[in-house]
Queue: 2 jobs
Job 1
Amino acid sequence: MKNAQPHTIYLKDYQAPDYLIDRTELLFDLKPNATLVTSRLLVRRNPDAVKDDEAGLPALWLDGIDLELLSIAVDGALLPAQRFREEAGGLSLTVDKPEFLLEIQTRIAPESNTSLEGLYLSNGMYCTQCEAEGFRKITFYPDRPDVMSVFTTTIVAPATYPVLLSNGNKVDSGTTEDGRLRVTWEDPFAKPSYLFALVAGDLQYVEDTFTTCSGRNVKLQLFTEARNIGKCAHAMTSLKRSMRWDEEVYGREYDLDIFMIVAVDHFNMGAMENKGLNIFNSACVLASPETATDTAFQRIEAIVAHEYFHNWSGNRVTCRDWFQLSLKEGFTVFRDAEFSADMNSRAVKRIEDVTLLRTAQFAEDAGPMSHPVRPDSYMEISNFYTLTIYEKGAEVVRMIHTILGAEAFRRGSDLYFERHDGCAVTCEDFVVAMEDANNADLKQFRRWYDQAGTPVLDVQDEYDAENATYTLTFHQHTPATPGQEEKLPLHIPVAVGLLGANGDALALDESDSKEKVFHLTEATQSFTLHGINERPLPSLLRGFSAPVKLRFDYSNTQLLFLMQHDTDAFNRWDACQRLALRTLEQLQTQYRAGDVLESPTALIDGFSAVLGHTELDPALVAKMLTLPSAQEMAEQGSEIDAEAIVAAREFVRSTIAGALKSRFLTRYHALDERKAYQPTAEDIAQRSLKNTCLAYLCNTGDEDALTLAQAQFERGENMTDVSAALAALVEYGAEGVAEERLASFYQQWQHDTQVVESWFGMQSSSASFGSLGRVRQLLSHPAFELKNPNKVRAVIGGFAMRNFKQFHREDGSGYEFLADQVIALDGLNPQIASRLVTPLTRWKKYRAREAEQIQGALKRIADSGELSPDLYEVVSKSLT
Ligand code: B3K
Ligand code: ZN
């Protein structure tokens, strides 16, 4: 396997920067193939650097990639050639002055930048993405987050780019002698280069204002291409709600006079929190009832909030180095999750987050890329924007919140923001602020930051009727992960409630509390509750109080009881999931043994009861009726048998659909109200259950059910209902019908990029429709572009990550297909290639035949030529 410079970076090697940049002035003269970037940097020796100045001042290192160096001057004089050296990845200068003005001119070619990192073009619009290390593709600079500078940016562009944006406030604008436009922006807040942004294009905007808690008026602007201007309202509402929430819940006020969001079609991830100028993937910001589903509406609300919240957790207080990434990401995900929970159904939000964690983060934790929330080494930082950093990181912050309590947590966050405002700090600083503000001890808790892997928690109980005591014994154990053989016991907060025989919550102590948090700190630990007058049924790990795999030997009857009576909505759902997973596992065993598959009677009883529960939140009911995905089933067992997973799941779904058909139909009709679309929590809940029922009904294959879907599709009331109906027709309808509906849908929506993206995804992820042949056809569809990550994620990602059945075809053709796509993409966009290879990385968990096929596909990628550092790291770690 070849790579230009496979190089591992270690946290233990961290050193403060030798030089600081007090001011950064940038001038961009924009041209697609020859953009001139002139920088003027006020450089100063860092007083806190590790000093060895006797032998003269150290060289100044500036990162730089794919830059054409035109000139360097120090204090106004050109720097002689012997004073600087261009090396792989940057530039080394010997200036021998502790303070100086450095001027550098470089040339870059945004048009040929397909990595979508640095400055690039999307649909003719210039935009940037600098996190983590994209700024070095713009100009030579100490591109590390602990170098914070005040930026002034001047943009010069032809009049065909009337909108010229950068961070901060607009301080000047005019026209150059040759008629081009010139705008200058100044950002008064010192920031690292990763938060720099520039946008230039022919854009329209919608505008609003927000009055902050101290009475300042902030201008809010959302920029997009003219055709999308009608799709901005929801993001704007979400932004204002986020701003208010952050004031109320965290006491955080916005700091600039303007906050801008720009939508771009070509973007490697969801969005980016650049100071005062957030750049968003169009799919994560643009929505209208006709074009976007409820899921998209909620995703937009969450991402707008997430990026906005970064203004404090990330921008005002930033990361010292990239090993600390979870400092801003874990905390901000926790903040946005709480915001979404406050805006919508708290239980459903938690269920969604935990599902993601169990399906994908647990898999990551058990795979070759497993790493702690604070990694100790990496080759390519882009590979570490992971579910572990984000989602497990958020769980770690949530546990601090649970351990300290809401008020104490707020005291901790206040101290953290106050103490570190304007600084680049570490995860340790965050924990220390939480401790200092509350006189708390989180010493053992810190292990969550260092230890990779998902802890397993085995629980036993014992009831002593004579003494009326109930004892829970916990045993914790974290499996070994690459490079970490030994694991120490963690501090695990376990929220527990007890149910009596009549379903009531039992009092756990004299103060009559119905829920308690046990603090596990040892490998094995028992807790005894007194005054328990009947044998209780425990409701464990309520609200998923820690990111662990909990094992307790519940009987089916006990799970059905919890589904009916638990006052913790999350655990009600979890009981249902446990029952479903257990049933599915038994069926896989029967399938492998060639036995007749047994009807899942307990699950049918449970679902039937849930369906009849009309006072339960319909969104929660919809979640309870949703079977674990094939991916989640794969994560559960010790060895993955793809065929058995698919067979068991299809059998359970169709058996339930058949057995409960009339109940699904009754609820469908009861929920199918005609009313104007609103993305409110209540209406979203109603639609989600209605469409869950519709999918089960269509799963029976009955004509009348498909007619119902057809009618819902034709009514075209909102995209949620239309796309749910279409998806059901595609999955369960006759092939001809599916093709026809897909074609008419495309006909109607071909002008709308976001709808076309979901149209692609619906096909490639369909178990019955998305065959490899069809997916190949989609790749040659005129609307497909390999250079557009959303389309790649929809078609190739939809197939490899969400179409378990077709991807794992016996002949291994799915794996070979993915390998081909990854190889092709690596030359264009390494970040996307390295993400897309994920389904191949867990090959060791599959049965021998699949394992060999997947490993073969990986080896083919490894031998395909020189890989990007991104792909090299993932492939090489997966093959060892
Ligand atoms: N901070 C960015 C992620 C940048 C990813 C760079 N490869 C978005 C976010 O988490 O808010
Ligand atoms: Zn983030």
Job 2
Amino acid sequence: MKKIAIFASGSGSNAQNIIEYFNGNRNVIVDSLWSNNENAYALIRAERLGVETFTFSRDEFYHSIDILDELTDRKIDMIVLAGFLWLVPRYLTEEFPIINIHPALLPKYGGKGMYGHFVHEAVVKNKEKSSGITIHYVNEKYDEGNIIFQANCDVEKSDTPDDVAQKIHLLEHEHFPRVIEEVLYQGQD
Ligand code: GAR
């Protein structure tokens, strides 16, 4: 049995999709959902699906090891970032395999400030013909860990950033849970 903790800052459609994918699975359990944003809709989605939730402040995240202690007590095997926007500190990257989903084809459109809608706005502004998703390991720099999986979608001339966001979310929902499952059982390279 492998245990996942999901970290999410916003709407949480990926978090919900992951929880639903593993619901009833005897090998993988979504143990808890963690957020830096007490208004994150991700918290409501998780609670509705019976997953325990935790919120934390910047101070707790960067200047204490309370979160590490709790994750260790809960015997978490992997942290999954699903729309989590803070840089993850070293005390966590050293302790757990952590994977993130990014809404672009890294190394393009990555780095600080490149998240969510800002990515899709930049893609449309630059008249890209395609975009996609990247699932990667997390280290202490934004979007620079080893890439595990990428998938592409076309960007039409008429696409708005919202249209691109919709295509990206479809790709994320299709691939992220399956890739998490594969990584859990193959271990980090
Ligand atoms: C997702 O598109 C995810 O790739 C992105 O935030 C969105 C969260 O959507 N993450 C980043 O931009 C991280 N740099 P959700 O809250 O509906 O899952």
